[in-house]
């Protein structure tokens, strides 16, 4: 009997079906291992690249938002100092009322504003009045000394308020007297977590468990974090976190590091220039690479199912089962080798092979979506880097590159071109009387009018506050063409504009430089046109060439 069983096993073992099943099982096992090892590594690299780019984009956006909030507060201080009547420094009641108007009109400082004497002891006036603030000695504080002695706006070290204990930051600027020397210091105080300031850094998360850190390298402090107990705590000493050490030394970008709690994180670092801080967008790698683990598990699961199905069915319908699997494997190999483009696998049956194809197609779709989102983000950032945010015209950097290209093209074709340097006349009074919003609208209308008088081959750019430049390409007579265009620009811009219900007018001062007679380099041409423009301003307003 034992001999009969041994003979039957030997006969089955030597059969083609058994050997095909055995080989198929071995191939499935080996293939599953190869896919798990190599595809997981490949997908992990891709996911890390896309996640890092996405986090850096988020960090850059948040850093820019925080920086704009600092600029708005410093601008409020400087505008307030510029508008402060000198006589109010000796009239505390009137000065308090004046501060109240500023605070009510633009409540950017949640804890109020105060005017301090030069000795830093107490306050001359404050609004809103806070118990105990008038008795505080500020004479040795960093923000007070920086504003008083440096005579420039200053941002203090984030600290806890001696009055309320909550984290605050103070910004200050000197108040000049009639002789121009500092006569007092204007300070604004805001809570770090005040609505509209840094509260979103603490409240927002990245994914389910990630978040932000806002760091002051100068003060070696965590200014804000999504974990409240980290706020105003000291940064770790050197050597604890290598990526943090690099960030403190000026590195900005992405990387993987291990935090103080021993958790591996994917971090993206971006600068907040105005206060000299940087922000870190961080996400645990267990969450960032969860999709890789899901793919690994999916591949393992599909392979196990395939192994079971092959064991049961290969002996009965070997060709029927293996034909679509072989075709799918062949196409995947061709795609991996680059012989054919990446494309969804055809799904002929809703079985395990179809599930494998669905999983691959789903993953392929996700990768394409992420790649498209990354390209769109890069294109948007490239446009922002080369165009003026207010008018949509090319900015100075892009204009200089276009000017260099124009010089190269003129050298090849032997045809001259002209450069017009334009400065608006009468723009500052509009800003001063109607405000910056009206000034911005004037600049937008001027940009549209200048664009309207040019050919499609010509270029107009905004290169400064109220300064524009025009390139007139490949002119038969560049001198006559430039003077004609300058007059057209003057006529177009000088027409009245309606801004916020008020009719305003501006004029132009235009300087002209011709290539090659006025310069052979971009710098020479810009300098020549700029000098010519200033010559126009000093003269009667006619076109001038120096």
UniProtKB/TrEMBL annotation:
Q: Which SUPFAM superfamilies match?
A: HAMP domain-like, Nucleotide cyclase
| Sequence ranges assigned to domain GGDEF in this UniProt record | 415-546
The organism's superkingdom is given as: Bacteria
Residue ranges of domain HAMP in the record: 319-372
User: Keyword annotations for this protein?
Assistant: Cell membrane, Membrane, Transmembrane, Transmembrane helix
Identify the PROSITE patterns for this entry.
GGDEF, HAMP
Q: Where are the transmembrane segments?
A: 16-38, 298-322
Q: Which InterPro entries did the record assign?
A: dCache_1 (IPR033479), DGC-Regulatory_Protein (IPR052163), GGDEF_dom (IPR000160), HAMP_dom (IPR003660), Nucleotide_cyclase (IPR029787), Rev_trsase/Diguanyl_cyclase (IPR043128)
> This chain belongs to which protein, by name?
Diguanylate cyclase (GGDEF)-like protein
Native species of this protein? Azospirillum rugosum
Q: Source taxonomy lineage?
A: Bacteria, Pseudomonadati, Pseudomonadota, Alphaproteobacteria, Rhodospirillales
